[in-house]
Each structure stands twice: as C-alpha cells, then as structure tokens.
Amino acid sequence: MITIEELQKMREAEDHVEFKRAEHNYPFAGGDKTDIRDRRHCVLGYVVALANERGGKLVLGMEDKVPHTVAGSDFAHGKVGALVDEIYERLHIRIRFEELYDDKKRRVLVIDVPSRPIGKALRFEGVPLMRVGESLREMDDAEYFNIIQEQDPDFSSRICEGLTIDDLDDDAVEEMRTLMQRKGSRIFVNPLPQLLSDLGLSIGNKLTFAALILIGKTQAIKNYLPQDNVVVEYRMSHSLVRYTAREMFCGPLFTMIKEIWNYINQPASNPLQHVEDLPQIVDIPSFNQETIREALINALIHRSFQMGGDIMVKQYPDSITISNPGGFPYGVNINNILTVNSSPRSRLMADVIEKTGLIERSGQGVDIMYGNCVTEGKSLPDYSMTDDYQVSLTIKAEVIHPTLFLMIGDFQMQHEPEERLNTFDLLSLYYIVEHDPDRVFKDSIARLEKEDLISKHPVLRYVMGNRYYTYLPIVKSGKISALDMRVLSDISLEKGEAAMSDYTTAFEERKTVKQTRTFIQKCCDDGILESLGGGKFTRYNYILAL
Q1: Same domain for 224 and 340?
Q2: I want to staple 415 with a disulfide (CB 3.0 to 4.6 A). Which of 232, 307, 419, 462 is the partner?
Q3: 461 with 533, same domain?
Q4: Is 289:257 a contact under the CB 8 Å cutoff?
C-alpha cells in the first residue's frame, strides 16, 4: 500500500503517475465539454493514456507540482466499486484503487492502471491517447505502429533451442503420418528428418516450437513450454466454486486432442438430448465432437504464448466454456468473426494442422462451429465474455429449436454436399426462427425462398416457410396442416395476443367465420393456443414450442 508521503515525492514522467487536484465535479468521461481536446482531460482519458504507457497511477486530490500537496477529492466518493465496473465495461481493463486520508481527513483517490494488452492501443472516444508534457494527445503514427508490431509474430515458427528428434513422440508422429495419408499427401512416407523439413517443422537441423507443440514428448513440452497445458474442469452446477472432477492435459497436440475429447465425452458428462420425430425419437449428443475439436484447435493456434496461463475448459451439464490466453487477433471482434480474414498467432502450426487434414482449412473452424450449432437446433457459439486478455467461447448443450434441427437435417441429407446450405444460409434460418430479421444475410434470401424454407411477410419481413411446419409432431400426427400452423405462428409474431377477428381475417380465403371459430377452439384443446379473458375480450396466445 502506498502512502501520501511517498506520492508527494513522485515525478509524473519518471514514475508514470498523473496528479490532479480534482476537488469537486471532476469529469469521468468528458463531462459537458464540447471540444474533443478538452474532453480528453477526464478520468477515462488519463486511464487510457496511462494504460498505453504500460500502466501507472492516476492520483486525484493532490496538486501536480512537486512536492504534491493534498487538496482532497470527492470524486466517486462512496461509488468506487461502480467506477471499477464502468472502466472495465468501457475499456476491458480492471483497475485497482486505494483511498488515502491525511491528518486533516482529506481524501486522496489513487487509481492503479494496468498496462494495455499486448499489441493493442486503448482509445478514448475513438482516439488512442498518450501523455505529452501537460497534454493528452493523439498517439503518433510511429508509436501506434510499434504497438501493433507487438502482435505475436508467429511464436510457433521460432526455433526451440535444444529440442531434438529424440524429443518427439512416436505415437504423435505416426498419427500425423496417418492423417496425411488419409488426405492424400505423398510426403507422409518420407524419413522423419525430411518430413519435418517438408512441413517447415525444422529449419536446418533445428526444430521449431510448432514441432514441440504438435509432436513433442510430454516431458519435452514441460521442459521447453510449461504453459502449454489444457485443463478440463467439470462442475455439476454453475453455482459450484469447487470442481467435481479435474484433469490437466500436457502432450503433443496430434494425440492430446483425442484424449481431451474422450475425457469430455463420458456418458455422464455428455448425455444425449432427445428430439421427437414421429414415429421415432432422435438422439443428439449434448456436445458435438467436431464442434469441440474445432474450438480446442482454435484455442491452441490462437493463444498467446507471451501471456502466462493454461487453456481452460470448464464443462457443465448444459455448456462448455473454452478460454485461451490472449484476446482476438488484431482486426477481429465478435461482430466480424465469421467474415474477417484473420491470421492465427501460430501460423506455422495452423498450416501443418491444415496440411495433415486435422482441420479442413485454416480459419474455417468458426464457420464449422456456427454451422453445427444451428444444424443441431442449439444456441449459437457465445463469445460475449471475451476481452483483451482472453478469448472465451461457450457452447450450449440444449436443443432449443428441435423443428429447425429436423428440417435442416432432412434438407442436407437430400442434397449433394455442394448443394447443401452453407453457414450463412443456416444462420439466416436461425435468425428468422429467433425473430431477428435484421441479421438475415441478403445473399441467402433467394435460395431459402426458392426451397420454401422461408417466405417474405408484409410486416415481419421474413418468416419460416410452410416446409418448416411439416416437421412439427402435431402436424405429422395429422391434427393440423402445416399451412394452418404457419398462419397461427405468423399471427402470434405480428400481434402477440390475438383476437378472434385477427384469425377470421387471416383465414377468410380458406375458412368461413364459423369454421375459423371451431378451428381456434380445437387449437386450444390441442395445446397450440391458450385463451385469455372471456367474451368479446378473449385473446389467444400461441404456446406450442417450435
């Protein structure tokens, strides 16, 4: 803990500290100032600048002239916890603070600002800031370029000094050869030294870190790269702090991937989900092997080895969360993760994995995960807990859209691979089922309409087509037609709780008013609708799960 006496002797530039009198009404984020240069002189602006200097202290309540005398500050008094949360929400860095008092009970707030993430400059209102004398200025091009250059320059291609062929795992090498043979590569039969050279795993007579990570013996990995671990923890509930079971995996990637999956795929921890598809029940594993494998490989090739920490896999009955050190690569964020071309931090390792066929194409793993989740009727992969220091991916187990699962599965089986729905087609269907038409991909619309998978709607823009409703058990049982089900669903989406007049209008070309009333009553009896209220004020609510 620092003292006021120690603070009084500090110098701003040398000690990476900024002193502000800030007695009353000091702004947090620009205040009511309109000039952008004036707005920067606030708590958030100085936190950004100090973080860009690799960290420091912002001291509120002391004069900026040496020796720094105490003035006292009421900034965030009684609300410092909320301040910490707000700064994390805006900048994704976690500050620490100390509240000090002198002998006159005057308060000094010391905000400890951590360093920015490696390879990333923090911004205030879109501008990367740095301190220059008494000013906060936009970072110059040279400084900004130096920061961007910190991005991991492909750790896996570096030479691992001391690593020899004797440190390579025979089973992992054999698995690598087998995968290459399956993919049709002709070099899989080459002698090991030649094979390593052909794959770029050796340069001259020296082996790279990619060779260590992919095919190195466990003991060699522990010696040369002790942070290359994958820890899997299982908990019966999200509320449990202590894990129910825990296993640490340290070994060559080519064999370790299978070992991790076998651990996750135990019957008790990866139970089957059941979907009714009359006259049978379809079983779906809670966690898909391909999805989890792609998530793990992504974590391994995108992790930052400059940051300590293991890859963590936290498994629960309803979800798996995989976290790896290092945020998204430069230029990648949650919104563009499916469309941006990114380069993995371990480029060489990714290239070798691709050449061996363990993954189809470098960078395609996210597409596969999204496509699998939609195809299985599950929630989309969730990256919302990702920050500048880690990528966190959660895969949910529950089948939330069983009808979508049945329809997509049938459609894909009926078509040759080149004619099947692609990832963006699948996502468009998901967003329509989720009643989020703004996110539908325009290039998918014509194809989906042609196949009667979706149709345009004058109010809702897009709704599921008649084909979708044929997969409902109640339609398969013959109790109601697919067209009638679609009309009921569309009315519910458009009106919410609908009146009888809404239904008579919608069905006027196909049913008389009397027939519609009888039909609506039958829908209530069959559990498709529920009636609310009575008499002329009766409203009907669509309750059948899709």
Answers
A1: yes
A2: 419
A3: no
A4: no
Same domain, 204 and 304: yes
In angstroms, the CA 482 to CA 530 distance is 19
- Is 449 found in the same domain as 354? no
* 243 and 329 inside one domain: yes
126 and 182 assigned to the same domain: no
* Phi and psi torsions of 14, nearest 5°: -70, -40
Residue 88 shares a structural domain with residue 234: no
**pLDDT 10s digit of each residue in the chain, 546 long?**
899 999 999 988 888 999 999 999 999 998 888 888 889 999 999 999 999 988 999 999 999 888 899 999 999 999 999 999 999 989 988 899 999 999 999 999 999 999 988 778 899 988 999 998 778 989 887 777 677 666 657 889 999 999 999 999 999 999 999 999 998 888 889 999 999 999 999 998 899 999 999 999 999 999 999 989 999 999 999 999 999 999 999 999 999 999 999 999 999 999 999 998 888 899 999 999 999 999 999 999 888 887 778 999 999 999 999 999 988 876 677 888 887 766 678 889 999 998 888 876 555 678 999 999 999 999 999 999 998 788 999 999 999 999 999 999 999 999 999 999 999 999 999 999 999 988 999 999 999 999 999 999 988 899 999 999 999 999 998 899 999 999 999 999 988 899 999 999 999 988 999 999 999 999 999 999 999 988 888 999 988 876
- Report the C-alpha gap between 48 and 159 in whole angstroms: 36
Q: Can you say how many angstroms the Cα of residue 72 is from the centroid of all Cα atoms in its chain?
A: 43
Q: How far is residue 358 CA from its own chain's centroid?
A: 22
The parent domain of residue 108 ranges over 4-148
pTM of the complete model beyond 0.85: no
Quick one: 232 and 354 in the same domain?
yes
Nearest to 144 by CA among 157, 167, 127: 127
